[in-house]
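Q: For a teaching handout, I want to show students what a protein-ligand complex looks like in C-alpha cell form. Below are the inputs, and the small molecule is calcium ion. Please produce the holo structure.
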Amino acid sequence: MKSKAIHFLAAFTALLCMLAVLPTQAQAEDAPNIVVEMSLDGTEIEAGQPITLTYSITGGTQPFISLSISMTSYCSDNTSFEVCRIDNPPLQGTLTGIPLYGDELLASLALVDTNLGFQYFSIDSIPIINSLDYTPITIDITPSTLTPNAGEPVTFTYEIAGNASPLLSYSHINYSSNYTYSNGEDYGYEYMNIDTLSGTFSYTPPHEGIVTLDVTALLNFEDGAGKLVQPTFTLDVQPAGTEKPARTPGDVNDDGTVNMRDALALLKKLADWDVSINASNADCNADGTVNMRDALLLLKKLADWDVTLQ
Ligand code: CA
Ligand code: CA
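A: Here is the structure, written as C-alpha cells, with calcium ion included.
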C-alpha cells in the first residue's frame, strides 16, 4: 500500500482547493475539537460498482467557512480520479460514488473552521479491483540550462499529455527552492497557476552556488482525472558574468567540424551505444537536454534545411 503518498496527495489537493478561503488568524485557545466519523459500506470495491460513505461531523465552530467530502481513486502511476465530491453538505449524511479506474479508493473530508483553520480527515484506503483501462497523464519539464549565471533566468518548458480529454480545469505548477552556499542558506517559494497544456515558467537564481528546485505540479482535468508530479532539478549557479565555455553546436564528436559523423555519433548515443560525445555541442536546440529532437535538428541542418543550431 502507498497510503502515505495518497494521504499527502489528497490533503495537498484539498488544501489547494481551499487556499482561497483559508483564514490567517491564529488558532483560538478554546476552540472545540472537531470529531469526524466516516465509514464505507465495503472493504474492497469492484470497478463500476457503487460504494457509499457514511459520515458525521461534530464540534468545531459552525457554520464552517467551507466543507467538502470526496472519494478519489488512485492509480499506481499517481494518476488519480475524483469519483465523487460534495461541497458544503449537511453535517451528517451519505455520499455514493462509482469508481472506474485505479487500485485504491480514499475517502476524505476537508474543512475550514473560523478558529481552527484548515482541517483534513480521511479513513484508510480500500482496494479497487478490476480497474478499467485509462490513459496515464504525463508532464515533461525541461530546463533551458542546469548551469545558469546568477541573476540570469532559467526557463522551464513544460508539456502535458496523455489524458483522454485533456482540458485542464484547475492546475498548478509551483516550486519551492533551496539554495545552499558556503556562507549560509537561503530559500524561496513561488507559485503559479497554469491553464494550458504546454508553456514555460522561469526561475532566476539570485546567488552563485548549488540550488535545488523542488517542483510540485498538481494537474486536474475537467473529467475528474488528476496527477501530482514532483521532479527535482539541481542547478550549479555560476557567478554573474561568467563566460560560457566556447561551444560548436552540432559538433557532437568534438573534432572541430559538423558533419554526418556527428549525427551518427548522436544517434548511437541515443541508442545507448558506448560512445563519448560533447553533450553541450550535442544539445543542438539548447534546451538543456540531449534527445531525439537534437538529432532531428542536426539531420535537417546537414540536409540543408533552413534550421539553426543553437
Ligand atoms: Ca564533428
Ligand atoms: Ca536539446
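A: Two things your students might notice: DSSP finds four helices and 17 strands in the chain. Residues 20-28 have pLDDT under 50 and may be disordered.
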